[in-house]
Design a protein that fits this description.
The complex is a heterotetramer, with one copy of chain A, one copy of chain B and two copies of chain C. Chain A is an alpha/beta fold. Chain A has a domain at about 260-505: Rossmann fold, CATH 3.40.50.300. Helix content of chain A is about 35%, strand content about 25%. In chain A, a hairpin with a 2-residue loop joins β23 (about 470-475) and β24 (about 475-480). Chain B has helices at about 5-10, 40-55, 70-80, 95-105, 130-150, 165-180, 195-210, 220-235, 250-260, 275-285, 315; strands spanning about 25-30, 60, 85-90, 110-115, 125-130, 155-160, 185-190, 215-220, 240-245, 265-270, 300-305, 310. In chain B, α2 (about 40-55) packs across α10 (about 275-285), α5 (about 130-150) runs parallel beside α6 (about 165-180) and α7 packs across α8 (about 220-235). Chain C is built from 15 helices and four strands. In chain C, α14 (about 280-300) runs antiparallel to α15 (about 305-325). Classes of the chains: A alpha/beta, B alpha/beta, C mainly alpha. Chains in contact: A-C, A-D, B-C, B-D, C-D. At the A-D interface, α10, α11, β20, α13 and α14 of A face α1, α10 and α11 of D. The structure holds adenosine-5'-triphosphate (2 copies) and magnesium ion (2 copies). One adenosine-5'-triphosphate sits at the interface of chains A and C.
């Protein structure tokens, strides 16, 4: 099938101080998976927001199934059969899963919500996404980032649209979840639904994509490339304008020794994780691999004192850290770049600079008075090191693209420079180019004697970056080994078995 | 109660020709009072304005009422700055406004202190106001007499006071308590409303629940009384006890005259005093005396007696019953 | 097109976690009920034969009825992420308007219509300025709070306007199977409100608008229209409240409804609704009203002095909330 | 240490852009300044020779001084995501406490100390209950609003207490280079507050705590301690305000500071601070106080009837905010 379903031409979108889109073209055919690639800040999300009627374009025209349309509002787009999964999971925490999925298109008679019907359809949708475990009544605010992602996918499926736009759906998902997602996508495309798929993971593009459009600085630099055959180097060159060998920095030759910086022993939180013990030595990078929901975030947050441990101890340099107190952990020299940037890390109303120096203020203060110039320069340096776009650290952080916001979060802790750095999904939504920068920076930190703990849902990342890997399944450390001695499949098997074993035990 | 201004003026007692009304030099009088957040203060303000309208030679500068001494001080200062010829001040808090009143006097502007007394004689040329303590006494005496007449041994007497954080409320209750005591009686229950019909109903309805048998009830304020009256009717206990009002609204006087309800009397505390205050202010401003007094001088203090209005004497008071 | 392959193993932690946590609303309501029970016990002990009487109970509910109705509207406004400081003023204006000689000329029907119309219009003005004028609710309703009362004073000449039509006064006397009509009205308004909030699309969207306006917009909700409607709803409740209060006091006065905004907001917040919107419970709000009313009732039955009442009241409120928090584990975060 | 590349200072065009954008605060403040100018023009026209006089100006500022000081504290509280309904009550309590015969026995020093001590302690209690008792600010400070005033009434026996020491009264009469001391105090408090908010770590953290408490906590800020401190700060401001008001009125009374909570919050919100916290401007708050005070002053000078005044007041407030919004393009969200 070659006829085009959607054709966007010369789309321009300006924001105060930035041109987000400087003339973008995009054409999508029925039943295809059309991948949208581009660096952080290239304009992908803005483009799909224009398509979804969430932004009004300043110029350009949209042809939808032959006829010109201008979606004044999200409703209009939905009515035309275009559903969207936004990058910033825009769900209502206070409402239940079912209510979120059917918000604004509820099953209702005379304004009264038909509860059972809603629940039934919700269950079906979640089944289809491989998550019968999420109950329709659960308040969305209680779900993990991953859980929320599932719900927004269910929401997109709930209006049977002919075009579904997915803005980095896999960013918060681990391997198995992505498999579910792809299974669903194949089902949809088989039925003639078109998908616009945004991701920074090339291997995913290879697996699911049909054609690729590449954006750079708000312009279409390439369209209609074949998703499977186009060589990576070319795609990366189109995206970044330079060649990046997508490789991890070399590990230090001899494994780290000396007394551990951080020692965790017997840490337990009812319902989240059991008897977690591990140690981190100076200059060592420890990776935590595991499924979504396996409790890695909880482990990090508990080590950091953000959650109170039910049992077990955390000590830094041999001294016990007061449990359940973040200030204590920070004083002891820990830092945590949390998982959910919007909820747990960013001050959306503040500037980039404010956000970057948030944990480092005392350094720029004399007698409590902040040397704002120094702080600003430090922030500028940090963001430049992370290739933040746009550069100016005075801009409000809320105007940044998702990936750039993530860089701000990580940048905050790289700047802080603590003894032990805990990173939860540090590369979530960060583009290829910036990733290798990030890896380099993390490795530099380690080489300077900092102990690093990295949680990532991308197994290759854990294996590539870490010296030692802990495999977490269902709140237990089921395996520990030097990264060199493991490969992706081993890890995945371990994860699955682990959970299998544990769940059996629990049943008994 | 009426809504048309004409009647309203009538009820301010402003129509009976004011003393020394003979035209004099044109003068301006500044007027400042608390926020009109309840009927009595509202009537005071309305009466002052109505009274002023009767004099062709008088302009009234009425400032926004406020319950914040700081604001009222500033208002008075503005009036001083405007070089008014006389000031009529009903302070939210007499003591708090004393200093600024002194300033005015020092600036040669005669001050008429209305109702709530300053703490220094230097602060005003003349005080005119009601007798809060006396009001309580009148109410106490009337009730005591009634009880004796009905020869009820230790009767249940309840008191529904007004805004309790005002000094005048304390004085009224004090007078009531001591008058009753002089007859060997005491207040069984005392609760405070806020001078408004709504709060009157709210408090009274619950006081009625708290006291299964009542012989007499004194309510400090007739505007609040509208609510109290409603509550009593709603409780159905309309002929169990007598009720005495306060201040003296036209509505209550009508009830007393009709003598068909439980409202048997009200002890005057009449907002028309603001009218007199304006007249005095005008005379001071025009440097006139009180021609009808033997000595021309305007007395330093006029405390209007808090008469008890009953069905015997109600007709003579009806004209000044406020709306 | 349904799932072709079997779904992967559910990740157990999510389930466990989800299961353990009760909903914020319920937990808090439980707390408030405990508080009410305790207050009742105190009442029974300190005012034997007075507090626990049918008469006192009905009177207590009657006292709660007006503010209760207002609180229902306020609950919607706050859940939708707004605030309405003008409720008291609207009641004053509506009560005055419906008791002018002119209105009274039309008899009870005309009076009720006048009150409802005025209140609804004022609510709509609030809503329009906030939704379409994109102004801060606090400021808009504060302005209305000043203006509406001013207008009420202007119209009434600041005189209490006594209701002449006995039929109207009857509203406060009538009973339905022994229950005062006013209490029945509160019950009806509360139930209707509850259904509207928890069983209709309007209610769902109210939560959405307050919880995440941007998400609501992206979902296709007309956020502005909804905001407008919520303030209209609050206005309507004030209109009903005005009719009730006018009947109860047999007057319309510019002094009616003073501080109702504070009482209503307090009831809503103590009822577990977030001042920032998006989460809340109407049952909680009603319980909040009952708690506050009961406290005052206890004081009056025990004939406490005003200052003591106030000191104690504050303490009791704090105690009540602490009690509530025990019921509610969710906000037990470490720091 | 961590930065691998040299600090790239933001390039020129970027800087210019940033400058053009301006902070929301500034934009709104500009709006308020325009409003003030307009009010001044109106004053000059309607009350020639009265409004634009040095005397009236000082009088206006003196009136603004007490509420102004309170507003400074309130600004911190609201930016930190809280609210303080108890400011007026704290002022009443402090003024009463510092004018008891006992306190007056210690002379002016003792009186000032008494006021400051009481206010600070009450603020600390608020803060402790909110930060460590994890209770809703609205409820805690509402309870305090009731209790503190009750306590004031209890102590004073509901009779205002005259200040006997002339030295104390002098506070209201003293002038510094022709400027009333009270106005100077306001200026000093405002400047100190501005520096604290905009130039110190404390200020930055206040924004952080109000903007995203969870993020602040994970960023290593001791959110609870900071919250406590913010309410203490508000208490201190109330203490200063109490001393000023007591000197101004030469009395301590349980009726002092009525509705100050509303005036202060209104000034803060109209000044462009978000009721939800995280963003705000102290300059805006002060401008807000001046706008409100000027409006009242204009009315006094123009001798309008109070009801009309109130109606107009509401209208003016709305107009003012609309004017402000023109200054502020950024919150023009697409709906
Ligand atoms: N509301 C806004 N105001 C100002 N600038 C904005 C706004 N939204 C986006 N931008 C800018 O537009 C550009 C494109 O942003 P967009 O979110 O589309 O990037 P993206 O391709 O989605 O990046 P990422 O891969 O990180 O999600 C960025 O420079 C961003 O700063
Ligand atoms: N059902 C749930 N109820 C409450 N909080 C949850 C729930 N599921 C996840 N979370 C929270 O969401 C965050 C993500 O943790 P998650 O459960 O996904 O474990 P994880 O191993 O960190 O998985 P990932 O980091 O890959 O998302 C954690 O803060 C966790 O507490
Ligand atoms: Mg994006
Ligand atoms: Mg996680």
């Amino acid at each position: 099938m070659t006829e085009t379903m959607l054709q966007m031409t010369g789309i321009v979108k300006r924001f105060p101080g930035v041109v987000a889109l400087a003339g973008v073209d995009l054409d999508v055919r029925p039943g295809e998976v059309h991948c949208l690639l581009g660096q952080n800040g290239a304009g992908k999300s803005t483009l799909i927001k224009v398509l979804a009627g969430a932004h009004r374009p300043d110029e350009g025209r949209i042809l939808w199934e032959g006829s010109q349309v201008g979606f004044g509002s999200p409703v209009a787009a939905v009515r035309h059969g275009i559903a969207t999964i936004y990058q910033e999971l825009d769900l209502v925490d206070g409402l239940s899963v079912a209510d979120n999925i059917f918000l604004a298109h509820e099953y209702a008679s005379a304004g009264f919500v038909r509860g059972r019907e809603t629940r039934e359809v919700t269950v079906a949708l979640l089944e289809r996404l491989g998550h019968p475990d999420i109950s329709p009544g659960t308040e969305v605010g209680r779900l993990s980032a991953a859980g929320k992602q599932i719900v927004s996918m269910a929401r997109a499926l709930s209006h049977d649209a002919r075009l579904i736009v997915m803005d980095e759906p896999s960013a918060v998902l681990a391997h198995d979840e992505v498999e579910n997602l792809f299974r669903v996508i194949r089902g949809l495309t088989a039925a003639g639904t078109a998908i616009v798929y945004i991701s920074h993971r090339l291997e995913e593009i290879r697996e699911i994509g049909d054609r690729v459009t590449v954006l750079k600085d708000g312009r279409t630099v390439a369209a209609g490339l074949d998703a499977r055959t186009t060589p990576t180097t070319e795609i990366v060159k189109l995206m970044t304008g330079r060649t990046i060998e997508y490789a991890f920095p070399p590990r230090q030759s001899e494994p780290a020794d000396g007394d551990p910086l951080l020692e965790v022993s017997g840490l337990t939180r009812a319902g989240e994780f059991v008897d977690v013990s591990f140690a981190v030595r100076p200059g060592e990078i420890v990776g935590l691999a595991g499924l979504v929901g396996s409790g890695r975030s909880e482990i990090l947050e508990t080590v950091y004192g953000a959650r109170k441990a039910g049992a077990g101890t955390v000590s830094m340099g041999g001294r016990r850290v007061r449990p359940g107190s973040v200030p204590a952990a920070v004083r002891a020299g820990m830092g945590l770049a949390p998982e959910e940037r919007k909820a747990q890390a960013l001050f959306m109303l503040a500037s980039i600079a404010e956000n970057v120096v948030a944990s480092t203020l005392p350094r720029f203060a004399r007698a409590g008075f902040v040397d704002r110039r120094a702080a600003l320069e430090a922030a500028a340096a940090q963001t430049a090191a992370l290739e933040l776009r746009p550069k100016d650290p005075r801009r409000p952080v809320r105007t940044l693209s998702g990936g750039n916001q993530q860089k701000v979060v990580v940048g905050r802790w790289l700047l802080k420079g603590c003894k032990v750095l805990l990173l939860d999904e540090p590369t979530r939504g960060v583009d290829i180019g910036a990733r290798s920068e990030l890896y380099a920076l993390i490795r530099d930190l380690a080489d300077s004697g900092v102990g690093v703990v990295v949680v990532s849902s991308e197994v290759p990342e854990v294996l590539g970056l870490a010296d030692r890997v802990l495999v977490v399944a269902d709140g237990r450390i089921v395996h520990e080994a030097p990264a060199a001695e493991l490969d992706e499949h081993q890890v995945l098997d371990l994860v699955m078995e682990g959970s299998a074993v544990i769940t059996k035990e629990d049943v008994v | 109660t009426s809504n048309s201004p004409k009647e309203a003026e009538g009820s301010t007692g402003a129509t009976n020709a004011p003393a020394a009304a003979a035209e004099g030099p044109a003068v301006t009088i500044g007027f400042s009072a608390p926020a009109a957040d309840h009927g009595w203060i509202a009537a005071v303000t309305t009466n002052a304005v109505a009274r002023a309208k009767l004099y062709k030679d008088l302009t009234l500068e009425a400032t926004e009422g406020t319950n914040d001494p700081a604001q009222q001080i500033s208002a008075v200062k503005s009036l001083i700055a405007k070089k008014v010829d006389a000031l009529v001040i009903l302070p939210f808090d007499g003591k708090a406004l004393t200093e600024v009143a002194k300033e005015a006097m020092a600036a040669g502007i005669p001050v008429v202190n209305l109702d709530r007394a300053f703490s220094s004689p230097l602060a005003s040329h003349t005080f005119i106001g009601g007798d809060n303590y006396g009001m309580g006494v009148s109410a106490g005496n009337f009730i005591a007499a009634q009880m004796k007449a009905k020869n009820i041994g230790n009767p249940v007497i309840v008191e529904i006071a007004g805004l309790d954080n005002l000094e005048l409320t304390q004085d009224r209750s004090k007078g009531f308590k001591e008058a009753l005591a002089s007859h060997g009686l005491k207040v069984t229950a005392r609760q405070a409303a806020e001078f408004t019909a709504a709060t009157g109903q709210k408090v009274a309805s619950q006081v009625l629940q708290a006291n299964t048998k009542i012989d007499a009830l004194w309510n400090h304020d007739d505007d609040q009384g509208i609510g109290v009256e409603a509550a009593i009717k709603q409780s159905g206990r309309t002929d169990e006890f007598i009720m005495v009002g306060g201040a003296g609204s036209k509505h209550v006087m009508d009830l007393i005259k009709a003598d068909k309800s439980f409202v048997k009397a009200t002890v005057l505390y009449n907002p028309s005093m603001s009218g007199s205050a304006i007249s005095l202010g005008r005379l001071l401003a025009q440097k006139k005396g009180l021609s009808d007094l033997v000595e021309q001088e305007i007395p330093a203090s006029i405390t209007t007696y808090s008469a008890t209005v009953t069905k015997e004497n109600v007709d003579s008071y009806l004209p000044i019953g406020f709306a | 097109m349904t799932a072709t392959e079997p779904a992967t193993a559910p990740d157990a932690p999510v389930l466990r976690r989800a299961a353990r946590l009760g909903s914020l609303g319920e937990a808090r309501n439980l707390g408030l009920i405990i508080v009410l029970v305790l207050l009742t016990v105190v009442g029974a002990i300190t005012a034997p034969g007075l507090f626990l009487t049918w008469g006192n109970l009905l009177n207590l509910l009657t006292t709660a009825s007006v503010i209760g109705v207002v609180t229902v509207g306020m609950t919607f406004v706050i859940i939708a992420g707004g605030i309405d400081l003008s409720v008291g003023a609207i009641i004053a204006l509506a009560s005055v308007w419906c008791t002018t000689l002119a209105s009274q000329g039309y008899g009870i029907g005309g009076m009720i219509f006048a009150a409802m119309a005025v209140a609804t219009i004022v609510g709509a003005v609030n809503g329009a300025l906030i939704a379409y004028g994109r102004m801060v609710p606090f400021i808009v309703t504060l302005a209305m709070y000043v203006s509406a009362r001013g207008l009420a004073e202007q119209i009434s000449g600041r005189r209490s306007q006594i209701v002449s039509d006995p039929a109207f006064a009857q509203i406060a006397f009538n009973k339905v199977l022994g229950i005062p009509l006013l209490v029945v009205i509160l019950a009806v308004v509360a139930v209707v409100g509850w259904v509207l909030l928890n069983r209709t699309t309007f209610g769902r969207r109210t939560f959405a608008v307050g919880g995440n306006a941007e998400a609501a917009r992206l979902a296709g909700i007309d956020v502005r229209r909804h905001t407008l409607l919520v303030y209209v709803l609050s206005g309507v409740c004030c209109g009903i409240g005005a009719v009730m209060l006018t009947a109860l006091t047999n007057t319309g006065a510019s002094t009616h409804g003073m501080l109702y905004e504070l009482d209503a907001i307090a009831a809503v917040i103590i009822g577990g609704t977030l001042l920032t919107g998006g989460r809340g419970s109407l049952v909680g709000s009603i319980l909040g009203v009952l708690v506050f009313t009961t406290i005052t009732n206890l004081f009056i039955l025990n004939n406490l002095e005003t200052p003591i009442q106030n000191i104690a009241k504050g303490a009791i409120i704090v105690a009540a909330v602490l009690l509530q928090r025990r019921g509610d584990r969710r906000n037990a975060v470490t720091h």
